[in-house]
TrEMBL record:
Residues 27-209 form the KANL3/Tex30 alpha/beta hydrolase-like domain. It comes from Thalassarche chlororhynchos. Signal peptide: none annotated. It comes from the Eukaryota. It holds the Pfam family Abhydrolase_11. Transmembrane segments: none annotated. This is TEX30 protein. InterPro entries: AB_hydrolase_fold, KANL3/Tex30_Abhydrolase, NSL3/Tex30. Coiled coil: none annotated.
Length: 219
């Protein structure tokens, strides 16, 4: 279901992937610095979640300013929270690369503003912990404030997320967290000798099983 979500004097393009049975729980998903909501990984994950009973709303927000992306993500969260069509008791925020940074930032901001439990988790696909080859400056400040469960799915050869560095940040986090490493995958989740579909199957299954363990999904 295609929708346009009001954002300032503009609209954000978004698509609902709706499960057959009514879902009480949803995932909001967005893309990285390049691309849009039709990035193949996002389309694949949204379809997988919907086929397993989880509503998925993915949206496009162009712009390389993290504050702007965060503001857009927050608008989408509010939109879904107030939706009469899909009355959800909670959502999980998910993003790829820069989109996962925006998701983390939203969760940190909203947790300081209100105490409701609408946001119940965070999924970071290829979290960009640092710029390529610039490992001295970590983008970890939002992660350290988050309290809800967090899943990281990262490539062990991701040039923007050095394995030991992410493990170090995770050990300092107060939130329940899990890291799933995709062996030999780079930042774009490409693995020599494996098809994109094969890698996506692994990611999708990981995300869903983590949701099932950490979120009150109705079985």
């Amino acid at each position: 279901v295609k929708v346009k979500i009001p954002f300032g004097n503009k609209y954000l393009d978004a698509i609902f992937s709706v499960p057959e049975k009514k879902s009480t729980y949803g995932v909001i998903l967005t893309h990285g610095a390049g691309g849009d909501m039709n990035f193949p990984h996002l389309v694949s994950l949204a379809a997988y979640l919907a086929s397993h009973g989880v509503l998925c709303l993915r949206f496009t927000c162009k712009g390389l300013n993290i504050a702007y992306r965060t503001k857009a993500f927050k608008t989408v969260v509010e939109y879904l929270k107030l939706s009469d069509d899909y009355k959800l008791s909670g959502v999980c925020l998910a993003g790829r690369s820069m989109g996962s940074r925006a998701a983390a930032s939203v969760i940190r901001h909203l947790s300081q503003e209100d105490d409701d439990d609408f946001i119940q988790g965070l999924v970071c696909l290829s979290y960009p912990l640092h710029r390529p080859k610039l490992q001295s400056k970590l983008r970890d400040e939002d992660l350290l404030f988050i309290r809800c469960p967090v899943l990281f799915v990262s490539g062990s050869a991701d040039e923007m997320c050095e394995k030991q560095l992410l493990e170090g940040v995770a050990s300092k986090m107060k939130a329940p967290k899990k890291i799933h490493w995709i062996d030999k995958a780079n930042h774009g989740m490409a693995v020599k000798g494996r098809t994109t579909d094969d890698v996506m199957e692994e990611i999708n299954a990981q995300v869903f099983s983590w949701l099932r363990e950490n979120i009150e999904l109705e079985h």
